[in-house]
Structures are given as C-alpha cells and as structure tokens.
Amino acid sequence: MQFLLSRREFQRAAAQMFIASSTGLLGAAARAQARQVRLGTFGSIDAQNYIRAKDSIASTFGPGVTASFVTVRAGSEVISAMAGGSLDVCNIGSSPMVVGYANGLKASMVYVYKNIVDSECLVVQGASGINTLAELRGKKIGLPFNTSVHFAAIAALKTAGLNVSDVKLINMRADQIASAWQRREIDAAYIWVPVVPRLTEDAGRIIFKTGDLADKSGLVIFDGLLVRDEFKQKSPDLVLAFLKDFEKIAQAFKQDPKDVVATMTRFLGVDEPAVMRSLNTFYPVPAREQATAKWMGKPGEKGTGVEKTLQTQAEFLLESGQIAAMPKDWSGLVDASFVARMA
Length: 343
Description:
- It is built from 16 helices and 10 strands.
- By secondary structure, it is of the alpha/beta class.
- Strands 7-6-8-5-9 form a 5-stranded mixed sheet, sandwiched between helices.
- It is globular and about 60 Å long.
C-alpha cells in the first residue's frame, strides 16, 4: 500500500520528526552532562579542597562530569547529608560512621582516608604532676563527646586499668577547650590538631597519642572515605576515579609539601604553619596496604583491623547509649572491592 503526503503534511511530519530527534539528542546530552558528584569537605587541608583549589575536576573524573562541594562541620552532618541524598562522598571518623550504619544509613566505607597517629593527643597541664595515664584517676579531662577522641580516650584509659567512673570526663567543643585550659579548669584534654599545639605552647605535655592504641590494644584508629550506596552503584567508575586521584594527592601531601602549602594557603586564607601542621599529622595508607588484614583486607574478609575497630567502637557506642543495637556484621559498611582493584 502506498501512502501519499501533501507538501504541507510532509513538512509537518518532518518538523515533528526533527523536534523528536532534537529532543532525543538534547535528552541524551543532558543525561551525559547530568553526571555529577557531590564531595563533602570540612573546609580544611583535605584532598577535596585541593581538587577544588587546583580546579582539577575534569582531570579527576574525566569529561562530562561536574562536581559540587558541600562544607560540613561534623561527622553527624555527613551522615544527615548522605541520608538526605545531598552528599555522595566524604571523609568521616569511624565513630559517626558506625552510628550512621547502626541507624540504617545506606553508605559504605571504601577507603581508609588516613591513619590517625599523632593528630589526636591526650595533653596534661604542665604543673599537674601527671606523667602517666594511671595518674589521671580523679582528674578532669575535657573532650568533645561522641567523637573519635571520646572513643580513644576511653580505650586509652582501659589500657591503664581505668574506667570512665575513675575520671571526670567533661563534654567540651574543640573551640572551648583552649579557653578552659588557659583558666586551668581542666587537668587534661584529649583533642586534635590544631588545638593540640595551642595547649602544648601553654605548658601542656602530651602523654598519649591515638596511634599508641595500635601497640597497646591492637586498634587502628582511622578516618574513612564514606560513599552513598546509591551513588556507588550508579557511578562506580567515578568512585574509583576519585580514589585513584586521592592516592596521588595523598602522595603529594607528603612528598611535595611546598606546592601544597602554596596552594592551600592561598585557597583557604590560612598561614603556612597551619598547613604544615596538618600535613605533618596526615598519614595516608596506600591501597596495597589497605588490602591486607591489618586494614580492610580482601573483599568479604572477616576479622580485619578495620572490622575489629568498628566492632570495639560499636560496643562503646552501645554502652554509652549512642546506638540502640549492635550491627549484626560489617559487610554492609566495609566495601574493600575498590581497594582490591587498586592494590
């Protein structure tokens, strides 16, 4: 059967075909341009801000990908933002990570962001006469509750045979600790850089570092890179691309500090000593090491160092009422598949 169209009908049909074709092409282009990653940053000297300062989004993720940056101030904000779908990737302490997971957050730790060694310390007043952990009995210790240093403090006390009831833990924000220290309202503080140097400059003495827990109790304390599961499932290539670039940036932080200092002082408006303090207490863990049992291990591996730490933290969080129940296992939180591909 032959169909004949008038010129007007042909032009109308052609126009409709053109519109449909254009719409399809525009839709495909829009879908291609719609690939976006939302990176969290604590507004500090981190890989995310380094990418931002260098304007290197295209080299990190490839063409056709846009990135936006979400500034957060605490681990709880990271959890809330991921739960609300407004944040895809961010570094976070293991304590808030466990709280989020225990409360049903669909997100996974895919990489150890850094090993916490000496960026968190227990500092005592110089005139206090305290030289050991055991001598903290009955003393006032200022620290922010529900954080990595809260967990580390209790773990440290246990190594000296002390319980929480043996000392006076005082809940203080990081920005309150230096003032309380100057007024001599506390005998000690467990806190992180950049507060630690302010205390040591005011006659404080470091008697314990979080990294000491690895030798005393076998706990590796770390910050992890957390990824929202929906984003990870839709864009695993972008997750891998970020991790590969992160590993290069981490090496630059340690091997080429001159460039990092120049870049971050300009971008963040801070002085060079502040950048150097951050770089000097930043300890990255290469993927090949993360793939061992000391850290994340192989995909699905049980009893790794990361799992042991998460389990111990969960017990602490349950005891302190921050979670209602222990997670049955850690397979939904720890995803070592990306590290395995990089090792």
